[in-house]
Amino acid sequence: MVQDCFCKFLLDNIDPESREFADVNDQIREVLIHANYFSPMDVTACLEFDIAPLSNHGNFSEMEELFAAFWVSYAEEDK
Question: What letters, b where the CB count within 10 A reaches 16 and e where it falls short, cover 39-70?
Fold first, then answer.
């Protein structure tokens, strides 16, 4: 269920112009982590998310960028 929520976040936040926050890290923290009450274990589950099945999506590169920003922010905290 956590990974489904993460997938929906990636799909819903592709366009930087339509995000609630201009800064991608603020968007991730507020719209994904805080809004969904993610625990550290939930964040770990999202770090293990396989983005490859979304590669057929027309805006996959934007999703990869969003995923990369998440990874950079939270992979270090997960250690």
Answer: eeebbebbeebebeebeeeeeeeebeebbeeb
Per-residue pLDDT of the chain (79 residues; tens, 9 = 90+): 999 999 999 999 999 999 999 999 999 999 999 999 999 999 999 999 999 999 999 999 999 999 999 999 999 765 5
* CB atoms near residue 32 (< 10 Å): 23
CA angle 78, 22, 60 (to 5 degrees): 70
Q: What is the DSSP string of 28-78?
A: IIIIIIITTT--HHHHHHHHT---GGGTTSTTHHHHHHHHHHHHHHHHHHH
